From TrEMBL:
Subcellular location: Membrane
Family per similarity comment: Belongs to the ABC transporter superfamily. ABCG family. Eye pigment precursor importer (TC 3.A.1.204) subfamily.
Protein name as annotated: Abc transporter g family member 14
GO molecular function: ABC-type transporter activity; ATP binding; ATP hydrolysis activity
Source organism: Quercus suber (Cork oak)
Transmembrane is among the record's keywords: yes
PANTHER family associated with the record: ABC TRANSPORTER G FAMILY MEMBER 21, ABC TRANSPORTER G FAMILY MEMBER 28
Membrane-spanning intervals of the chain: 418-444, 465-487, 493-520, 527-546, 607-625
Listed PROSITE patterns: ABC_TRANSPORTER_1, ABC_TRANSPORTER_2
């Protein structure tokens, strides 16, 4: 029997090369992979794109990641009793142990930089669960060991990890171009000019075959947009822009035609060749696709039946008595049959065919035999490999000073430095301007003409702007205009404009408060209730409805944006020397009790207080979201 995986230490050379290569560079010692003639024909274009990429951004240094997972076991508590009884504690307070189900049973493997690993298995075999565990995102306790360059999963590792989920997480209202440009502006390194970032986005769009739909809206369940396959490519593109050292993808080819699927796997392979560690789950790859994988893990009901080199899989199964029925069988089909417990019937020499019968006992015994063989033949070799200490271009061994540590962190995390990241994230928390500014900002620097043309062509852009504006700008403007003139306020255009600006300022601040409460509570119902109560308290404390607030809650006005807004509104209506008729004499407006109580001396302090709240609530929301992301 051949060893499942003959290690060739390609990683050091790859690590060195990762600075210069992006795709299609073969690692030394790796299996040469066939590429279909059609795709070969496309190679010149891709190579052009790649060389341009090299000269632009993706030479950002990678930290090669060797991922090892040993005996990964994961189970969940089932909500419904397996006996069919309702296990609700309210109805039957029994003390039966909660029913559990083990989704992963001791899965092991090693993936090194420069390698592309595919997880294969029937639907429900645990591929997504394993992938999620490797991405450090699985809730609850995962038994076994998962290490990244010999260390446990950490927040720094998280920043080096790209994860493309099965269900695309994209803003449905943005176009493809906007989505990727926004990601590029946020995540690419600061050394790159905006022009470079835009070029990189354009290149990625071409690379992923998204040119035709670049101005199409992404869409979602309600809003019809680009196709599912195109959406998947946009998701991959977003993660590619992040330039992760470890890239995990859940079914990136599902729903795609075979050419597009192949193009994506070629791209993934290229990304791995640039020094990344790439892991993907895949359903039913063609033999052409299968040949592009360096390693495979095959799961059957959460149990591993193979983990090792992709090109040694047939030899391995042949060595334990499972020969394919035909010489030119697609290895992926063969593996899926085995994982389903369907073995080729090799006992009939002249009539070799697959057992199509749905004999569960036979299927189970085949699965058991494969699992036992894995434990006997493959697992010991894998276990031995885990004990070998491998240090490949890993993080510097301690002693790094704070400055370099911080700069590495900034570089890895936001690329563009703290300021750009923070500002753009902050902008993202301003609903009225959201991504428009980011996209416009980048695009205008890149190519104003192209951007303007795109904007003009994209009727959706205007439709979306028009869709957003009523709630955030137009509605308050109309409301203020009507009430201003009907309310008999000072008939001065300057005063009116100032009043309008104060109201819009107030709207933005209150949105910020809503965002902060939403981000802190992460629960719509609770956040809505708390926001309503808080707004009401702020309004009451603001000084408009009640002037004499009990002293023990009088301080509330200092955190109430309504208070500052009200002061400013009154302030723009009345000047310091203005008088009003009080009986027979004229009194100063500033001496009017309610206005005196408000105190209109320092309007700039009020503006400053609102400005602090405008930014502060968003910072709070941002930090709360970061905390959520971290946990
Ligand atoms: N939170 C959960 N609660 C209950 N069952 C779960 C949960 N998560 C996963 N499962 C079950 O675990 C099994 C493995 O799920 P997983 O999504 O990992 O399979 P998969 O191989 O990725 O399937 P597919 O190829 O269809 O996406 C499935 O039977 C699924 O129903």
């Amino acid at each position: 029997m051949m060893p499942p995986e003959q290690e060739t230490n390609t990683t050091t050379s790859l690590a060195n090369r990762s600075e210069n290569a992006w795709v299609h560079a073969e690692p030394s010692g790796s299996t040469t992979t066939d590429v279909s003639p059609r795709l070969e024909a496309q190679m010149p274009d891709q190579q052009q794109a790649n060389s341009a990429c090299r000269s632009s951004i993706l030479h950002r240094s990678l930290r090669p990641v060797t991922l090892k997972f040993e005996d990964v076991t994961y189970g969940i508590n089932l909500r419904i009793s397996t006996t069919g009884k309702d296990s609700s504690p309210c109805l039957s307070p029994t003390h039966e142990p909660k029913p559990t189900r083990t989704l992963l049973h001791g899965v092991s493997g090693v993936v090194r930089p420069g390698e592309l690993l595919a997880m294969l298995g029937p639907s429900g075999s645990g591929k997504t669960t394993l992938l999620t565990a490797l991405a450090g995102r699985l809730p609850g306790k995962v038994s076994g060991t998962i290490t990244y360059n010999g260390k446990a999963f950490s927040s720094s590792m998280k920043r080096k990890t790209g994860f493309v989920t099965q269900d695309d997480v994209l803003y449905p209202h943005l176009t493809v171009l906007e989505t990727l440009t926004y990601a590029a502006l946020l995540r690419l390194p600061k050394e790159l000019s905006k022009q470079d970032k835009i070029e990189q986005t354009e290149m990625l769009i071409r690379e992923l075959g998204l040119a035709r739909c670049r101005n199409g809206v992404v869409g979602g369940t309600i809003l019809r947009g680009i196709s599912g396959g195109e959406r998947k490519r946009v998701s991959i593109g977003q993660e590619m822009l992040v330039n992760p050292s470890l890239l995990l993808l859940d079914e990136p080819t599902s729903g795609l035609d075979s050419t597009t699927a192949q193009r994506i796997v070629v791209t993934l392979r290229g990304l791995s060749r640039g020094g990344r560690t790439v892991i993907t789950t895949i359903h039913q790859p063609s033999s052409r696709l299968y040949r592009m994988f360096d390693k495979v893990v095959v799961l059957s009901d959460g149990c591993p039946i193979y983990s090792g080199k992709a090109d040694q899989v047939m030899d391995y199964f042949g060595s334990i008595g499972y020969m394919p029925a035909f010489n030119f069988v697609n290895p992926a089909d063969f593996l899926l049959d085995l994982a389903n417990g369907i073995a080729p019937d090799v006992r009939q020499d002249d009539q070799i065919e697959f057992q199509g019968r749905l004999d569960h006992d036979d299927q189970n015994s085949t699965k058991q035999s494969l699992i036992t063989s894995y434990k006997k033949n493959l697992y010991p070799a894998l276990k031995q490999r885990f004990t070998q200490v491998v240090r490949i271009n890993g993080p510097p061994a301690g002693g790094s000073n704070l400055k370099s540590c911080l700069s590495q962190f900034c570089q890895a995390y936001c690329g563009g430095g703290w300021a750009s990241l923070f500002l753009l994230h902050l902008l993202g928390l301003f609903p009225p301007i959201q991504c428009h500014i980011c996209v416009s900002f980048g695009a205008s620097n890149a190519n104003k003409r192209t951007f303007l043309r795109d904007v003009r062509l994209s009727s959706y852009y205007f439709a979306r702007m028009a869709g957003d504006l009523p709630m955030e700008l137009v509605l308050p403007t109309v409301f203020v205009t009507v009430t201003y003139w009907m309310g008999g306020l000072k008939p001065s255009l300057v005063t009116f404009v100032l009043t309008l600006l104060i109201i819009l300022f107030n709207v933005l601040v209150s949105q910020g408060l809503g965002l902060a409460l939403g981000a802190i509570l992460m629960e719509v119902k609770q956040a809505t209730t708390l926001a309503s109560v808080t707004m009401l308290v702020f309004l009451l404390a603001g000084g408009y409805y009640i002037q004499h607030i009990p002293c023990f809650i009088a301080w509330l006005k200092y955190i109430s944006f309504s208070h500052f807004c009200y002061k400013l509104l009154v302030g723009v209506q009345y000047s310091v020397n203005e008088v009003y008729e009080c009986g027979l004499v004229k009194c100063k407006v500033m001496d009017f009790p309610a206005i005196k109580y408000l105190g209109l001396d320092n309007k700039w302090w009020d503006v400053a207080a609102l400005a602090v709240m405008l930014v502060g609530y968003r910072v709070l929301a941002y930090l709360a979201l970061k905390m959520v992301q971290r946990h």
